[in-house]
Specification:
It is a single chain. This protein is α+β, with helices and mostly antiparallel strands and about 90 residues long. The protein has one domain: 3-Layer(aba) Sandwich (GIY-YIG endonuclease). The chain contains five helices and three strands, in the order E-E-H-H-E-H-H-H. The protein has helices at about 25-30, 35-40, 55-65, 70-75, 80-85; strands spanning about 1-10, 15-20, 45-50. It has a three-stranded antiparallel sheet. The chain is globular.
Length: about 90
């Protein structure tokens, strides 16, 4: 299985989108400062994930989520969560 995931920085709410075939191992890499693209945003928290059976489908989804349309999808899908975070709930 392949996972497309979104991490949120607890420092500044930055959203990181990634793809992996081992989500637990990948999250440990992020949290232990081994991923350069999230290093300055630590600590991070997993806030969203999708599971795919096909690698190409997963990487296509990751690529889409990194576009403007994909970011809009994320904002709509996670609207209540992101709003509650802003309001400190």
């Amino acid at each position: 299985m392949y996972y497309v995931y979104i991490l949120q920085s607890q420092k500044n709410d930055y959203l990181y989108i990634g793809c992996t075939n081992n989500i637990n191992k990948r999250l440990e890499y992020h949290k232990s400062n081994k991923v350069p693209s999230t290093r300055k945003f630590l600590p991070v928290k997993l806030i969203y994930a999708e599971i795919f059976l096909n690698k190409k489908d997963a990487f296509n989804r990751e690529k889409f989520l990194k576009t403007g349309w994909g970011r809009n999808y994320i904002k709509k899908t996670l609207y209540n969560f992101l709003q509650s975070k802003k309001l400190g709930r």
